[in-house]
Amino acid sequence: MSRVEFRTCPASYRHWNLAVDGPVATVTMDVDEQGGLVPGYELKLNSYDLGVDIELYDAVQRLRFEHPEVKAVVLTSGKDKIFCAGANIRMLAASSHPWKVNFCKFTNETRNGIEDATANSGQTWIAAVNGTASGGGYELALACEHIMLVDDRSSAVSLPELPLLGVLPGTGGLTRVVDKRHVRRDLADYFSTRPEGLSGKKAAAWRLVDEAVPRPKWDETVAERAREMAAASSRGQGQDGISLTPLEKDRSDDAIGYRYVQAKLDRARAAAEITIKGPAAAAPEDAAGLHEQGADFWTLAMTRELDDLILDLRTNEPELGTWVLRTTGAAQRVLAYDELLLKAKDDWLAKEITHYLKRTLKRLDVTSRSLIALIEPGSCFAGSLLELALAADRSYQLAGVFEDEDPDAEPAAVIVGPMNLGPLPMGNGLTRLQTRFLGDDDALAAAEKHANEPLQAEEAEQRGLITFAPDDIDWADEVRIAIEERASFSPDALTGLEANYRFAGPETLETKIFGRLTAWQNWIFNRPNASGPDGALRKFGTGQRADFDRRRV
Amino acid sequence: MSRVEFRTCPASYRHWNLAVDGPVATVTMDVDEQGGLVPGYELKLNSYDLGVDIELYDAVQRLRFEHPEVKAVVLTSGKDKIFCAGANIRMLAASSHPWKVNFCKFTNETRNGIEDATANSGQTWIAAVNGTASGGGYELALACEHIMLVDDRSSAVSLPELPLLGVLPGTGGLTRVVDKRHVRRDLADYFSTRPEGLSGKKAAAWRLVDEAVPRPKWDETVAERAREMAAASSRGQGQDGISLTPLEKDRSDDAIGYRYVQAKLDRARAAAEITIKGPAAAAPEDAAGLHEQGADFWTLAMTRELDDLILDLRTNEPELGTWVLRTTGAAQRVLAYDELLLKAKDDWLAKEITHYLKRTLKRLDVTSRSLIALIEPGSCFAGSLLELALAADRSYQLAGVFEDEDPDAEPAAVIVGPMNLGPLPMGNGLTRLQTRFLGDDDALAAAEKHANEPLQAEEAEQRGLITFAPDDIDWADEVRIAIEERASFSPDALTGLEANYRFAGPETLETKIFGRLTAWQNWIFNRPNASGPDGALRKFGTGQRADFDRRRV
To answer: A135, A157 in Cβ contact below 8 A?
Structure first.
């Protein structure tokens, strides 16, 4: 199969329509049945595959950057009587286990992004469910702040995965039903075993939707609700958006290159060596300069590149199990960009860039690859880029310099900056520093106190900011062994280990979705009862019943 | 294979020694290599199987009920140079997936029980790690409040599951390392990839243990620490324990019967029909009466029976996927027993019984069976027994009476009592009522306000305490369909659904262990990389390397 490409733009959409009318945008799902990403299935009934979701992700992003005037987003369907039938079943049945899991991860991230827009951008998403929303279709609605269901004696919301397919809803449905919408757990249980779901006033009474609206009043009520939500939005007034210009990218079999982000694909060691370059020029002086640079502003450009790289590697290079993270450039310049973003924090664009960086780092956190940060002379692990090292499973910082390479170099330093102290929380609601120093308030306070100080290896190790600080003599061996050893371990066990160690501390909707719900779903996906030749996923639509191993595990 | 029996007593232990010396008990692990529960493996190096853990569970229970004088428990090994090598690998490699998962669940519950003894009974467990503790051996130590490691240049603690077996530590290790002991996540990552683990002062510096003690000072320091912990204990003085007399049980292929608990095994419908009888006599008047009755006191006797039944059914009857829960007896009498326990809450035995009921109900919560409560005339779903209905995935309460059976019967009622309002929290730290009404404070307040009122079906339904309230005409069909339908669904998907819906709200060590860590471990156990013919579990000890599918999922 050819490589999947995540870059797109509204002019290229096959499945969605994005229309903006003043403060209200309407995102209409109208899936092209013949437009599947992979041959072998038709995307009937507004069902989706990865290709459909890639466009949705693009729309969510563009609304935030290109449409600061939009304060409410109506998500609806362009089909008659059907809102969305969820992920395409034939696609799921034909997909490999890694594909299914990666697909669910990306769709989950996009739904979390919809919630992030509502919570942090004053772009409130409204699900205008104008036909039946089943499975992933209802889960898409669940990501919205307000769910309206047309009350017409045929349209329903449902989670039919368990009774029909022998799997779980894969994009947060179970968690959002009880933890976000507070549907009572026994009602949720009944609902999730009922293939036809619930409709109308009963769906509203059970909190599955916020309101059931008779069809004659539908258009008017949706418009009214959108106006109300827009009026209640915290988003500022009358600003011009920036253009998310096409992302330039060189992609070959052994390298991926952008302006600030490079990756070498080392298949022999099953590793991707990723280098992120700091800013090429000094930061603009103020928000006006930031707006002028738009998509060229370093933080935004670098984040878009990193985002695309993560998605490309996750989807196209599942065998590269370790990502080695390096940075290169001037640390003070990185901090200056951070400072501008934080100083201009009432500026919508500065805010959007910071939230986007936050979301992209969260994507890294939930990536099922071992992350190893290498902190070498000439690097700039400071502030926003220090987050890469803090996101890593391990970090190595060179003590001293590479004597053979550049004996006069400045030894590598890490710098904690304001960006590390709040604006970029993980999915668990804590900063990466707070998670790192969970239960050790003294170490956290010391790290904060020494913010803005360049810390060379020995001090960084002592303060707990890095894992190991080998010197020139040990460096090559220690790093080589770490990478080679990682490639020798069970990839599954590594994924499980990392998923558990990366998220110490409190749990949130997000960590429950990625940590708990996803783990159960992965297990179920992998069991013969779902994916075996007689499993429910394979038997769906054949008229035959699945043949289950009845033992409860 | 023959049925597994969980009832035992110290005189029958093959693997443990329990010695009590005033306020300090010593629990010594000395596994009989030839004493495996199932043929086919030797329990070398103090490794354990389910049979070994059944005895440990018994010891933990007896210390709480039979030894109120014990305030510190030293857990140590009777072998030379080895503390415990964890779960037996050959046993794991030879076990079916359901067996492995059920085994891990039970061992997890026992380790949680050790923490519960420390937290709630003033019985502080100390791990005296007098030799190497690897894998499940170190996890056993992690359940203790204080970990002492002998510092002798050979003894270490380790979690070698990932590098050696391609699986995760299965009894809470990952969670306890970062969330309980606050080992830094990158150090935890390194530690968990190092088969030989860490020893001595480094293990202490990384917080993996609390202290490393040189061998010459070992005995003296362990004794000193035990004295200190006992002295600091909140447990009362000089009381007499009660005897946990042998539990009488009739077990056949189609029924399990105790004094207060009965189960009919309905293999045709893949269901166990469980009935719990209320007290046969009025509650004793005071704590003295409670002590006099000892193990015959209804709440304790019923809880021991329910506990044994849960363990029996989980282990021996994996195909009975639905448990139907009924009660029969006088509700006011149940409430009177509850009242006595709560009134006498400073009495150690009353406290122990309440905590034991709490732990047993938690066992029900994490049981991978669908739970359906049937509330019929003559039932006594009140207070402590109402928890069964609240633990269920669904409940049905008959509106009115069975006209053909007993037209003059009193209609079924449920009664919220003080036991439902705090003393019996779930693993998530909330009561079952709080979890049920998550995000709906009004409904919770109303349920509390109407405590002690018998609520018939219509009112109970309206107050959200039950799921459905069919009348005589609909009852038989609705209940039949619910049970039959459950048996038709994918057992795996049901397990995943229930694990997600039962634990809305906050997360704790316990919910992380059962919800997240367990789900990942189940997935990994089930993957060819671990359990396939070339998987790491099968290749362990053969000198051959596992052949991994390298794709990261």
So the answer is: no
> Does the beta carbon of A267 lie under 8 angstroms from any beta carbon of chain B?
no
Q: Which of B48, B50, B54 has the alpha carbon at shortest distance from B8?
A: B54
Cα–Cα distances in Å, from A13 out to A5, A20, A32, A73, A108? 13, 15, 10, 18, 20
Joined together, the tokens standing for residue B321 give 């996927």
- Considering only the C-alpha atoms of chain B, give the largest distance between any 2 of them, rounded to a whole number of Å: 78
B:420-439 residues touching chain A, CB 8 A cutoff:
435-439
In the predicted model, what is the mean pLDDT of chain B?
97
Q: Which of A368, A439, A526 sits opposite B552 (nearest CB)?
A: A368
Dihedral sign, CA of A475, A479, A481, A484?
Answer: negative
DSSP state of B399: B
Q: Which structure tokens are listed for B66?
A: 């039979």
User: pTM value?
Assistant: 0.97
Q: Please write the tens of the pLDDT for every residue from A374-394.
A: 999 999 999 999 999 999 999
* Assigned token pair, A285: 């002086």
Containing H/E element for A382?
strand A381-382
- The mean pLDDT value for B197-213 works out to 98
Q: Does B544 touch chain A (CB under 8 A)?
A: no
Rg of chain B, C-alpha, whole Å: 24
ipTM score over 0.90, yes or no: yes
**Out of B187, B519, B529, whose CB is closest to A516?**
B519
* d(C-alpha B86, C-alpha B75), whole Å: 14
Residue B499 to residue A516, Cβ atoms within 8 A? yes
Query: Do A466 and B147 form a contact (C-beta atoms < 8 A)?
Result: no
Distance from CA of B482 to the nearest CA of A (A): 9
Q: Does B552 touch chain A (CB under 8 A)?
A: yes
Instruction: Kindly report the average pLDDT of chain A as a whole number.
Output: 97
Position B52 confidence tier, pLDDT thresholds 50, 70, 90: very high
In 3-state terms, chain A is what percent helix, strand and coil (to 5)? Answer: 45, 15, 35
Residues A513, A172: contact at Cβ < 8 Å? yes
Cβ neighbours of A510 in B, within 8 Å: none
How far is A104 from A523, CA to CA, in rounded Å? 13
What share of chain B has pLDDT > 90, as a percent?
Answer: 97
Predicted confidence at residue A303, as pLDDT, reads: 98
pLDDT tens by residue, A221-237 = 999 999 999 999 988 77
Confidence check: pLDDT of B1 > 80:
no
Of the partner residues A162, A491, A521, the one whose CB lies closest to the CB of residue B551: A491
Enter the tokens of residue B527: 């993957």
Q: Do B502 and A527 touch (CB under 8 A)?
A: no
Please, are residues A287 and A350 in contact by the beta-carbon 8 Å criterion?
A: yes
- Phi then psi for B209, rounded to 5 degrees? -135, 165
| Cα separation, A226 vs A217, whole angstroms | 14
Query: Looking at residues A64-92, what average pLDDT do you find?
Result: 97
Q: Mean pLDDT across the stretch B354-383?
A: 98
For residue range B227-266, what is the model confidence (pLDDT) as tens digits?
Answer: 999 999 988 776 789 999 999 999 999 999 999 999 999 9
CB within 8 Å of chain B, chain A residues 471-510? 485-487, 489-502, 504-507
Virtual torsion, Cα A154, A155, A156, A162, nearest 10 deg: 80
Do B398 and B457 form a contact (C-beta atoms < 8 A)?
A: yes
pLDDT tens per residue across span A419-475: 999 999 999 999 999 999 999 999 999 999 999 999 999 999 999 999 999 999 999
Q: Which residues are CB-neighbours of B15 under 8 A, at least 6 positions away?
A: B29, B30, B31, B32, B35, B43, B48, B51, B52, B55
User: Are residues B526 and A523, on separate chains, in Cβ contact within 8 Å?
Assistant: yes
pLDDT at A543 over 70: yes
